[in-house]
Amino acid sequence: MIKVVHIKSRRAGNFYHFISSMFADSLIHETIVVLGTYNRGHLLRRSLKLYEKQDVALIVIDDDSSDDTFYVCESSSCAIYFIKLPPKGQQWRDSSSFLNLGIATAINRFDAKWVFITHPEIIPGIDTIECCKQSALGYNTWVNAKGYYLKPEHQKMIDTVNWQSNPLNVRDLPGFYSSPSAEFENRDYTPEAIDRTAVWASWIFGGGSSEMWQFFGGVTEFEIWGSVDVDLLNRRARLGMQTVTPMVASAMVIHQNHDDPAENIVTPRDMEKCMAALPDYNIADPRKPHLLSRERWQQMMCNK
Questions:
Q1: DSSP codes, 147-187
Q2: pTM above 0.85, yes or no
Q3: Could you tell me which residues come within 8 angstroms of residue 63 by beta carbon, excluding any fewer than 6 positions away?
Q4: By Cβ atoms counted within 10 A, which residue in 111, 138, 223, 297 is the most buried?
């Protein structure tokens, strides 16, 4: 089941105005995963296989992809609300603004009790959704699933293991633990370090209850790619929120590798610009309540 919203045009960089919608039956579901994507249909296809096995609906926000992303979603048995963004003049817009659109839609339109945000390349574990819901203890608790980051060589071999029955089977890939891991700038992201981690602070799959989102106020909207990842951590700390990570192995996720070394295609991220864009929360209010308010969401959905 897939429902489609086409965003026809945008103004002043605010690309969720002027929405015309083609609504089918209401997508009523207590748990919704929001993800933004651009030309990653080949990765999303795998991820959807595991979402299909769990009690969850998806809001997919497509950043004007030119690949088969829509058809990948259309062929899935998941309940999907698909939002197509208008054409843009750059390769990849930062996802933070349209993540807020997805979160606000989940809460204000579909009355979701739990909302999680992630990326198209994240394959959820067989119990990720249920374990994250059980860990979402209140308005001040953020839940982060931890997961393995595949290296390019392991991404090429992923279909040689039965990841559809259990994503953790990627650990059977040759050299998964023993191969050199010098390409990881941060040694905390190696499989060995991830196994030892009790609380995973970085966001690859995270969120919580609708009460948490109303308290947290949505993700800060940046133009610099990657800033939202760091800001999520900074704001949680400034607000005194607890970060919880389900420790059940079946809750772990798999971060597929989206780089293509042969074509020299990597995720664009200038960390100096990213860090320079971050707010100083010694003087700034870390809460952004207006970003998910019903009034703002109605403006997003009703402006013609």
A1: EEEPPHHHHHHGGGS-TTT-GGGGGGSTTTTTS--TT-SSG
A2: yes
A3: 36, 37, 38, 85, 88, 92, 93, 95, 98
A4: 297
